[in-house]
Amino acid sequence: MKARLTMEYWRDGAWWVGQLREVPGVFSQGKTLAELDANLRDAYRLVLKDRQPVRRRGVRRRPLALAV
User: What is the residue extent of each domain of the chain?
Assistant: First the structure.
């Protein structure tokens, strides 16, 4: 699966700091932009790994429409 996400980044002293706009909580830092990019990719992979479904008995699903 390929996701197209937006990296937002800024300088904080000697570090580049960034986040993935579409995925709350995915932040990282790096000494270079390349290092920040790699660290954000790793952080995103860890989030995906943690989101693996846990099978529970009796769980039901239904669509939910939200106005944002």
Answer: 15-50
